[in-house]
Amino acid sequence: MGNINGLVALACGLIVGLGAIGASIGIALMGGKFLESSARQPELINDLQTKMFILAGLIDAAFLIGVAIALLFAFANPFVPAIA
């Protein structure tokens, strides 16, 4: 039983950690491309900024879904009743 709880805690850490790394890399790349495109065409900054914020929300939403799944596994572990 303790082994399963330990492995679930390790999996939760991996889900949150890798999700955070992926989301931060994605937002960093998108922010860099936004700065490049706004430097090339300053008249499109408002349109590009709106699209950038929508995409940033979608990237963060994917990370938050991973956090919710990790919290589900941490507090309402579905693997414990299957073993007992």
From TrEMBL:
SUPFAM superfamilies named among the record's database cross-references: F1F0 ATP synthase subunit C (SSF81333)
Transmembrane intervals: 6-31, 52-76
Domain V-ATPase proteolipid subunit C-like span(s) in chain numbering: 10-73
GO MF terms held by the record: lipid binding; proton-transporting ATP synthase activity, rotational mechanism
Pfam family, one: ATP-synt_C
Membrane topology: Multi-pass membrane protein
Highest taxon in the source lineage: Bacteria
Gene3D superfamilies in UniProt: F1F0 ATP synthase subunit C
CC annotations in GO: plasma membrane; proton-transporting ATP synthase complex; proton-transporting two-sector ATPase complex, proton-transporting domain
UniProt keyword annotations, A-Z: ATP synthesis, Cell membrane, CF(0), Hydrogen ion transport, Ion transport, Lipid-binding, Membrane, Transmembrane, Transmembrane helix, Transport
Site positions per UniProt: Reversibly protonated during proton transport: 60
Compartment(s) of residence: Cell membrane
UniProt family annotation: Belongs to the ATPase C chain family.
HAMAP family: ATP_synth_c_bact
Known role: Key component of the F(0) channel; it plays a direct role in translocation across the membrane. A homomeric c-ring of between 10-14 subunits forms the central stalk rotor element with the F(1) delta and epsilon subunits. F(1)F(0) ATP synthase produces ATP from ADP in the presence of a proton or sodium gradient. F-type ATPases consist of two structural domains, F(1) containing the extramembraneous catalytic core and F(0) containing the membrane proton channel, linked together by a central stalk and a peripheral stalk. During catalysis, ATP synthesis in the catalytic domain of F(1) is coupled via a rotary mechanism of the central stalk subunits to proton translocation.
Name the UniProt record assigns to this protein: ATP synthase subunit c
